[in-house]
Amino acid sequence: MIVEEFYLLLVAATVAANCALIGSLLLLRKMVLLGDALSHAMLPGIVVAFAITGSLESAGVLLGASIFGLLAVALIERLAHTRLLEQDAAIGVVFTGLFALGVLGVSYYRSVDLDLDCILFGNIELTPFDLVHWGGLTLGPRAFWVNAATLAGNALLTTLLFKELKVSAFDPEFAHAQGLRPRLLHYLVMIAAAMTCVAAFSSVGAILVVAMLAVPPAAAYLWSRSMARMVVWSVLLGAAIGLVGYPVAYAINCSVAGAIALVSGICLVFAITLAPDRGLLARWWAWRQARLRTHALLLLTHLPSRPPGVALTELRQRLGLSERVFEAAVRYVQQHGLAERHHGRLIATEAAGRELADLPLDPSAQRADEREQAQR
Amino acid sequence: MSQRRTAATTAAIEVHDLTVSYGAKPVLWDVDVLIPAGQIVAIVGPNGAGKSTLLKAIVGLVRPLTGWIKVFDAPFEQRRAWVAYVPQRESVDWDFPTDALDVVMMGLYGQIGWFRRPSREHRQRALQCLEQLGIAHLAQRQISQLSGGQQQRVFLARALAQNPKLYLLDEPFAGVDAATEDTIFRILRQLRDQGRTVVVVHHDLQTVADRFDYVVLLNLRLIAAGPVEEAFTAENLQRTYGGRLTALAYAAETLLRRDVARESQR
Ligand SMILES: Nc1ncnc2c1ncn2[C@@H]1O[C@H](COP(=O)(O)OP(=O)(O)OP(=O)(O)O)[C@@H](O)[C@H]1O
Ligand SMILES: [Mg+2]
Q: What's the domain range around B261?
C-alpha cells in the first residue's frame, strides 16, 4: 500500500500548491470568490459530458468543465466590463445562473445516477488507483499529471509576467497607460484559474478547491511584506497542508478532504494570531510595548536630574499609576539607562533629556527640575 | 517665480470635438482645447465636471463617443513613453503587499518591457526619484503604513521615474500639507523649466493664479482655456461654478490679491 499512499500525498500536495498559487493572484485582485463561482459554474459542463459519455471518469468531463469554466470567465468579464454591475455582483450572477442550469441537468439525469455529492466533495482517496500507463510503464496517478501540467503552466505565467501581474493588480489604470495590457492579464489570470479549478476539482472536489484557493493565500497575505514572498509562501503552505492532510485523516479516521480542510482552517487561525506586523498577537504586543514606553516617558517628565531625586512612593502618587504599571515603568527607565536609583530615590540621567527632547511636550509646562526648585 | 512662457510653441495635447459618456448622459460635451507644451496647466471645475474623465480619455482609459485627441501631434498609443499618468490616490488599494520603492519602480516597467526583470540600475533610479521628493528614508516602508501625503509623493516619484515629456496628475495635492505642496510645486517648476509639460487637476482656486501658467476651466463642457491672466477671470469662474458662493468668494479674493500684487509691481 506504500505506493498508493505516496501517490495520494503527491496528488494532494500538487493540487493544494496549484490552487494556492492561483489563489494568491486572485486574492490580490479581490476575486477569491471566483474559485467558488467557477467550481459551481462547471456543473452544466459535467452534466452534458455525463449525458454523452455516461461516465464521470472520462476526459469528456474535463473538457465539459473547461468549456463552462471559460464560458463563466468570459461572461463575468463581459458583464463587469459594461460597468452595469460590479465585479463581485457579476461573479454572483453568472455562477448562480450556470449552477442552476447544472442542477436542472442533475435532476433530469437523477435516474441515471449522477451523484452531486461526488462532484462537490470529490474523492481524493480514489486518485491513486486511476493510473497513467505508457508502454509497459506505470507513470503514476492521472490526477497528478493533470494538476502538475496546470501547475507548470501557472508557474510559468507567474514567473514570466510577475511584474506585469503586480502592476496590473495594484494599479490597472496606470498599467494601461503604460501599455501593459491589464485587461489581457486579467483574462489570463481568470483563464488560469478556470483551468486550475477544472483540474483540481475532478481530483479533490469543489469544496476542497475553494478552501485551497482561499486559505493559503490569505495566511500568506497576512504574513508577507511583498507580493513575491506572498506567492512563494502561499505555494509552500498549500503543499504543506496537502501533505499533512493525509496523516491527520489517518490519525482521526476521517476523509482526506475533510482533514485537509481542517488543517488549513487551523493554519489560518495560526496565521491570524501569529503573523508579524499584522497578526493579532503582534499588534497586541506592539500596543503593550508602546504603552509601557509611554508610561516610562511620563515618569521621566516628573523626574529631577539632580540629587536627592525623588522618592518612589511620592512619585507613584504624583503619577497616579497602579503599582504594577508603575513598577514596570521604573524598571523600564532603569534598564534603558534613563534613570538611576540612589537610596530608594530616582534621578534622571543625561540620556533622559535627549529622550524627552523628541517628545511633543508643552513647552510652557514646568520641567521637573524647576518644579523641584520652586518647592524649596 | 520664473518668467512665464506666453506664446505656445507647440501643443502638448490637442483635443478636438471630444464627447465622452458613461451612460446616456455625456459627462464631457464637445470639448475642443489645445494645451501648450512647456507650461504648468491647471484643470479646474466642480466635482463631477469631468476633469478625471478628460485625463482618462487622453490616456485611452475611456473610449470617446466622438472626437479625437493627439499628444505631441500623434495618437496617444504612439506617445505612451512620453506620458506619465498619475491617477487619483483613492483609485488604488494601499493595502497591497509592497513597499514604496517597489511602487516607484512600477514607473519603469514600461521601459523595461514585457517579461524582463528590473535590474539594480532601475532600483537606483527609483531611489533617486524618492530622494527628489524627500522621502528616500521611506523606501522600504510598507505602502499601507504611509500617510496620505506620503502616498501622494510616492505616486509622484513613480511619475518622475517614467521620465516623461508630459505629466498628467489627477489631484496630486489632495490631502497634502502646505509645506509638501511647496516642495512639489518646486519640482513641477523644475520640470517645466526643463521644457516638460505638467497638467494638474486642481481644486484649490486660491493657488491657481500664483502657481499655474495656463488654466482650463471645465464643467461638462469647456468653459474657457488660456493663459491664467486671460482665462482665470471672475466671469469665467462664475460660469464654471454657477452660483456657488464659496467658490466665487475664493476666486474674488485671489483675483483681488493678484491685482494688488500687480499694482505694487508698477
Ligand atoms: N466609471 C464611471 N461610470 C459611470 N459614471 C462615471 C464613471 N466615472 C465617472 N462618472 C461620472 O462622470 C462624471 C464626471 O466624473 P469625473 O470623475 O470625470 O469628475 P471629476 O471632475 O474628476 O470630479 P472630482 O472633482 O469629484 O474628482 C460624474 O458625474 C461621474 O459620476
Ligand atoms: Mg476626479
A: 11-265
